[in-house]
Amino acid sequence: MRHGKYPFVVGFLFAPVALYVTFVIWPYAQAFQISMTNWRGLSAPQWVGFDNYRRLLDDGAFWKAVQHHGVLLLALPLITIAIALFFAFLLNVGGKSSGGQRQGVWGAKFYRVVFFFPQVLAVAIIAVLFQMVYRPNESGLINGVLMKLGLDPILFLVEPNLALWSILAVLVWQAVGFYVVLFSAGMASIPGEIYEAAEMDGASRVTLFFRVTLPLLWDTLQVAWVYLGIAAFDAFAIVAVLSVDGGGPDGATTVLAMEIYRNAFVYSKYGYASAMGVALFFLTLTFAALTLRLTKRESVEY
Amino acid sequence: MSITPEHPAALDRRTVLRRAAAVGMLATPAIGLLSACATSSGGDKENEKAAEGTKSAKNPLGVKEDAPIEVIIFNGGYGEKYATDVHEPLYKTAFPKAEIKHQSTQAVSTVLQPRFASGNPPEFVNNSGEKLMDFGALVADGQLQDLTELWDAPSVDDPAKKVRDTVVPGTVEAGSFNGKPYVLYYVSTVFGIWYSAKLFKDNNWAPAKTWDEFIALLTSIKAKGITPYGYAGANAAYYQWNVILTQAAKIGGVDVLKNIDNLEDGAWKQDAVKQAATAWAEVGAKFSDKSFEGLKHTDVQLRQNQYKVALYPSGDWLEGEQKQDTPAGFDYQLMPVPSLTASDKLPVTALRATAGEGYFVSAKSKNPKGGLEYMRQMLSKAGAKGFTEVVKAPTVVTAGSEGFAFPPGVASSQAALKAAGQDVFNLYFDGWYKELDTEARSATNELMFGRINADAFVERIQKRADAIKKDSSVAKFKR
Questions:
Q1: CA-based nearest residue to B229, from B318, B309, B339
Q2: Of A27, A184, B235, B254, which one has the greatest count of Cβ atoms within 10 A?
Q3: Is the pTM of this model over 0.90?
């Protein structure tokens, strides 16, 4: 034992934990505490017990938001992962094989960069960008073309049945690039010999994908699913900037973060907003735990 | 998860990602939002003595002459130039030793919320814009300085006159909560329906006085291929509930609005509100454009400037706001909301007018007296005149716009205000209960874009009003 080893070790153990507790755990604990009060953001809060939670139960906007999270939670990961997998497969192993090494489709390097573009943009910029794309009159990117062709404009963000899907499309558009890169990295680490062997056995591209790539990518997919799930629980910035009237029309696109924001910063009901935050916390935690449990399977070692 | 690397070399990319995912789970979104402004609640150290000086004829409020003052201006439609170029120099001239700290922002609550929460609020605030702080919550919390002292102080220009006697009647009331003045609403605002004098002249159209005339007017505008009427659903639905409620007040008298403000039982279900909603739902269905629900107010206003929309509801800040985009000769004009029936309680000239643009002094700031004095300077003739010259809008100071030639729009709204005489009313519920405002906005979009009828419209807003009435955490106000 060299002199001074323990302080060194303890220091390294203690400092990160202290930082973590101060900046992560403590605010969380405080959110729980605030959710039991009627704090309005200014003077000292009063304890109201579970009042805020009782109120949550018959808050229409809250349930609408939860419902939207349900939709997003199913659709966002499914669609994003499907598209990203498809692209990643094409980019990495979808092309011809040369010298025993499988290649991506022609121009794969270029596409890889292009797919990643949306990830580089700030979310707020994306939202503003899509405002232009979705604009309901002739100055909109899509509707401008439609109206030139003599068609009726599509009211993307205005039609209550369409608005959430329009927002979902933006979320997918933005997310796909990252997962293409993620899956590409995963695919790159799958040994080429496996593909080679499968090909010699006469496997088609579809078989290759479903029998080789997908199983060996399982861990990455799992991560992607959890990530996208969490993204589906957020979606705040896009909804706040893009949707009509902040989560509108009439709450058709609202999400929990939007309702938290509205209750906290528009209505100054911080206690109530915290209760929503706590609800969101448990929803997210449940989701993550469930996902990890349900998708659990033995990793393939190679 | 089944495998854990036994030695560092096995720590491949996926393991790292998986761990990152686990951390990501803990960093749940949005909840962190709240932690940013967690209750440090140091707001209770108010015993710190507020700066005070000796009262004199020149200093009737007793401001400490060298106490610094911090001014926060909302940088919106009126900009901040009126503060830096007019009001702050006035204060500086009166108290040369005082240091003035100026800050402007477009998101008032974002900047100020933490400062109020930590007990270090600025002296003087222009609380306005999309992110204004909830006045009701501020009052309920004792954060706002009672302005009685200011209103009773002698005015800058004539020591024989109290400040309250130099402003338009109703100014003090507009900023009062349960009878106590807390907010200075500084800009005189008139609401109505705006049109282009040029467009109307070119087509031989005349502003409508009765509902039949109005429908006929809308019909002939439509025949011309111009969208007759529209407001922006994306962020300005309150422009339209304002029209509906103005109509309701004309039908049933000003008590209709008073009941709504006071959260009286069934206030929204009053017949006048229902009639007004029915009438305007028809306008929305036949004479507007569905796409407007997805547009912001500036978009629709721009379309009006391009002569694609004929009539647009707004307040008289509209002309100034659109200055850059209005073509020469457009000539904004105001038309009061037309009468619905021959038996309306108020004449067609009646309109909603109020003092707008709220300013307050923080009670718990270091120098509240300085804030009051700043207001007194604002309310001087020089302060009001300077403001009007910079932003082209009339203030509540009666003598402030004397001899000032307003642009056509404001000139027409000032004329309409004069014509209205005593039949001027106002409403307050949106400032008192933000939730009710939000609900009214959503319901208005639903109504005007044809998803619900008038009955459902009043039903759902009434439901929210009832809920607010029962909510003990919301401070209630009466007028």
A1: B309
A2: A184
A3: no
